[in-house]
């Protein structure tokens, strides 16, 4: 349920009521104090601009900050609302493939280590130890060994 505060404008030339709707962003849970008479807050950029997602959710469930919604649906990979199952029409997810590639290249360059001067390790040996199947087998053997030792433990008098 929304908390509505109604206040009469003090200026006599303005006889309208200002309605202040207090909502919380459904993603970050920070409050979105929207002044219905002036809801385009461009001084703070579009990051904290409140939007309606455009899905089938109503009232507080449909409200989010523009930046939060874009980031959430970008990470999620699609624009399907997890609550109502419909597509969020008012959210634009920018494809940042080039930005991600640049970020990955920057991280790779920052963590780049000079190549070893000795002989290169064989690819088969390196692949064997990094294989997921091999690691799962080793883990299974360890679990089996602990279970068997637990089943056949003997109480030795001390």
TrEMBL record:
<keyword id="KW-0862">Zinc</keyword>
<keyword id="KW-0472">Membrane</keyword>
<keyword id="KW-0863">Zinc-finger</keyword>
<dbReference type="InterPro" id="IPR013083">
    <property type="entry name" value="Znf_RING/FYVE/PHD"/>
</dbReference>
<feature type="transmembrane region" description="Helical">
    <location>
        <begin position="134"/>
        <end position="152"/>
    </location>
</feature>
<dbReference type="Pfam" id="PF12906">
    <property type="entry name" value="RINGv"/>
</dbReference>
<dbReference type="InterPro" id="IPR011016">
    <property type="entry name" value="Znf_RING-CH"/>
</dbReference>
<protein>
    <recommendedName>
        <fullName>RING-CH-type domain-containing protein</fullName>
    </recommendedName>
</protein>
<keyword id="KW-0812">Transmembrane</keyword>
<keyword id="KW-1133">Transmembrane helix</keyword>
<feature type="domain" description="RING-CH-type">
    <location>
        <begin position="17"/>
        <end position="91"/>
    </location>
</feature>
<dbReference type="GO" id="GO:0008270">
    <property type="term" value="F:zinc ion binding"/>
</dbReference>
<keyword id="KW-0479">Metal-binding</keyword>
């Amino acid at each position: 349920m929304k908390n509505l505060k109604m206040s009469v404008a003090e200026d006599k030339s303005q006889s309208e009521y200002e309605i202040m709707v207090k909502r919380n962003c459904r993603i970050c849970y920070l409050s979105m104090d929207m002044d219905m008479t002036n809801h385009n807050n461009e001084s703070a950029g579009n990051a904290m601009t409140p939007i309606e997602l455009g899905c089938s959710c109503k009232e507080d469930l449909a409200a989010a900050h523009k930046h939060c919604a874009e980031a959430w649906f970008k990470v999620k990979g699609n624009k399907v609302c997890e609550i109502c199952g419909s597509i969020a029409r008012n959210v634009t997810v920018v494809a940042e493939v080039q930005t991600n590639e640049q970020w990955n290249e920057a991280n790779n360059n920052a963590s780049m280590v000079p190549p070893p001067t000795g002989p290169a390790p064989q690819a088969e040996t390196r692949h064997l130890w990094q294989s997921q199947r091999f690691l799962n087998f080793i883990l299974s053997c360890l679990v089996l060994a602990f279970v068997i030792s637990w089943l056949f433990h003997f109480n030795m008098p001390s």
